[in-house]
Every structure is written in C-alpha cells, then in structure tokens.
Amino acid sequence: MLRKCEVLIPMIAGMILFQLGESLEVGGLSRASAQELASAGGAQTLADGVLTVVAPNIDINEGVVYPREFPGLTPKNYSPKHVPDAATLAGQTTGVTRYRDIWQLEFAFKELRYLEVKLPLPDGNSQSAGVWYMVYRVRNLDQHLSFPANDANGEVTPNSATRLADLDPSILPGRFFPAFQLDGWVEDLNGDYVRRGYRDRVLPSAIPQIAAAEKMTGRLRDNVEMAREDLAASDASQEFWGVATWLDVDPRINFASVAVQGLSNAFRSEKFDESAKPEVKTLQINFWRPGDSDLESSRFRLGIAFEDENPDRQRQLVQKYQLPGPELVIDRMQSQTGAPTRLGYVEANFNVETKASAVAQELDNGTVPEAVAAFLAKIDSAGADDLTVATTAPGSRWLVTGANGQTWTIGLQPLTWQFNGEKFEFVGPLDHFWDFRYIH
After folding, report:
1. Which has the closest alpha carbon to 357: 321, 410, 399?
2. Neighbouring C-beta atoms of residue 49, cutoff 10 Å
3. Short-list 10, 16, 97, CA closest to 304
C-alpha cells in the first residue's frame, strides 16, 4: 500500500502552469525551461518544455533497522561462566540496532507525451504505433547516507555526504535498474472510472524517432542501456539521459501517474515474514490533460486537476491517483531520557467513503488494534504484553503501555491528505511524492 511522503511543503492550490523561460525551485523540486538548460551548458539540447528536477531525499530512518528479532534465529538465552552474557549469541542478537547504507539519485523528467512511430516487423516491413513516452535524466550528486563507526569507541555517526563509490558494494551503488509503471483511469459508459495499468516497454527502434521529436543532440538511452551505466564513477557534472516508453495505452486516459523505481535502494519490510516482498522506495509523478482523445494535440500537464470544493470530486482524485492517506507512526519512549525512538509505521486504513479509520477508532475506544499489537510484539517482544492504551488527542495521538512499564506513542501522520470535516485537506505538493510500495 502507499506510504510515506517525505517532502511536505505548503500546497499551492490548483495546477501551476509554468511559462517557458521561467525557472522555479520549491522544497527540492526545480523546474527550468529547455532553453535555460542549454544556455547553462547542459549536455543536451531539448525541444521546448519544462524539465522538472526532483532532488535526492533520504530520511535517516531509511538506513536504521531498529532492534527486532532476526528471522529464523532463536538463540538460547543462558548465563555462561567464563564470558559475559553479552558475548553469547542471544546477547549479540538481542536489542541490536543495525544500519545499512542508502543511496539515491537525482531524477529529472519532462511531461508525459505521445508520438506516432514506425516499428519494425519480423518480415522486414514496418508498422505505425502510438507510443507514450517520458524523457528523463539521472545524476549522481554524491550525497548518499552511510554510518561509519568510530574506531575508538564504536559509536556510529550518520554521514549524508558519502560518495557513491564509497558505499557498501553489496547494495549495488551506481546501478540504476529503471522500472516505470504507468497507471491511468478511463471513464466507462456508466460514468465509472476503470483503472488501466502498463509496464514500460523497451523499444530500441523508437529511440531515434523520439530523440528527433525532442530535438535531442546527445545520447538517449532505453532502460536496458541505462542499466549498463556505472554511475558510481560519475559526478554531478555527468548527465545520463533516458526515455521510458509504453505501447497500447488506452487513448481515453486523462488522469495518469507514473511510478518510478530503481532510484534508491531504500525499502521497507514491516511484515516480519521471510516470504513477504519488501516495499521499495518509489517516486510517483502525476499528470492530467483536458478531456479529449486527440493525444497529439492535447499535451499532458504535470500535477492533478485540483478540486477544492466538491468532496465527491476530491474523493475521486484521491482514488484515481492512489494518493496515500494518513498512517500511524510508532515511537518507543526511552525510560531514562523520555526521548522517542522511531520504530516504524502501521497502516491507518482510512475508508475514503466513510471518512473514518477503524484502526484509529479502536485506539480511541481504548483497544490496541491487532496490527499495532503484532507490530509491537515483533519489535519489542519483551515489553509488549498486556497492552493498554490511553488517548492523548482523540483521533490523532495515543499512549500505549506494556506490562513492564515500557511505553510507546502512536501518532496519526498525514502523507498527501487528511480529513477536515467532510472535505479532504491536501498536504504537500501533489505533482510528485515519494512512497514505499511493491509493484506487481
């Protein structure tokens, strides 16, 4: 399910249309015209349009694995005679905080577009095909996250300016294996919207035709060629340009989103099941266009067709773009200092029709929801018995206490929207956001 928008800045109501030649930067998101990039010495010369730049956005919690059980490991807890308890297998694997290096690339893109191209047939002839495509650029800014330990005392200090080449090689730093999922919604004869999903296709013969349409003078890569590049050997002065392509897309789609994976090695796996697939850090980019099927004359615009008044229209936008709702954030309170330690997240499962969360209602009623209890049992198994809950702010904040006095705070955190009475209140920019998900 959708989660975790890390960039939260005040929402600019409605679609913001940028005139060519303008440049704007807001909260790590910058837009510049193709002419500006060319005049600034960029490696590519582009056709008219706006290039949107999404800066790397690494949360330190993405690299910290707080104490939890090791899957498949059940060490015997005993007190040896000749070594301290901490030297046993149980002592070395209980209450251990682990760290993993996190890398993330800068990603820039142009608007979603459509082009009629010629594709080869097995008999040597060619046929016309309509291709949806999105030109993009990736760069390594060498601003990655590592956790070097002090040689003297072993203390770990996060370093958010680590070079890509200096990260743990086992996490494949410098390899961008792009995956693009295009989702759109089509209105049927009954006025209901039906989802259409498309994975990107590698179309080598379409690349030169797209490059010509975009007036690109440098190299344009398909996703296979992009995966061969070693970005660890590059720096911010080197640009890697590619294009994602889709075939057989329903031309009636007016609301579309593109999910991009491979820009980071960050992931989540909160289900504590060895067979569970992890949720991968994903960039979702949203587009819309006026309602007609003339794709060549009707360009997609970045963002959503914002609705500020009609709750039903707001609900439809939330569903069409799969905008993630509020989630529960769980922190452990340290007994000595009272300082919180972030443990993880649990779905709040808001129903957009009833505008209610059964999980939040259980907490308000003094009951610990099953999902929260299971989460705490895995993270803090020693203190997660006989849980009680007290409401500190109805509908948004709670305090959970275990049998041994261990306490946790649970807060409701909005990601892209929250309820304000009968209406949806949108939070942060909706043209793009970061999320954690598994794409089937």
Report:
1. 410
2. 17
3. 16
pLDDT digit string, tens, across residues 21-65: 333 333 345 555 444 444 343 456 565 568 999 999 998 888 887
**From CA 402, how far away is CA 387, in angstroms rounded?**
5
| CB contact set of 264 (below 8 Å; sequence gap of 6+) | 56, 58, 62, 102, 103, 104, 105, 281
Give CA torsion, residues 193, 199, 205, 210, to 10 deg: 60
pLDDT in tens, 205-255: 999 999 999 999 889 999 999 999 999 889 889 999 999 999 999 988 888
- Would you mind telling me the total number of residues written for the chain in this entry? 440
In the chain, what is the straight-line distance between the N-terminal and C-terminal CA atoms, in Å? Answer: 12
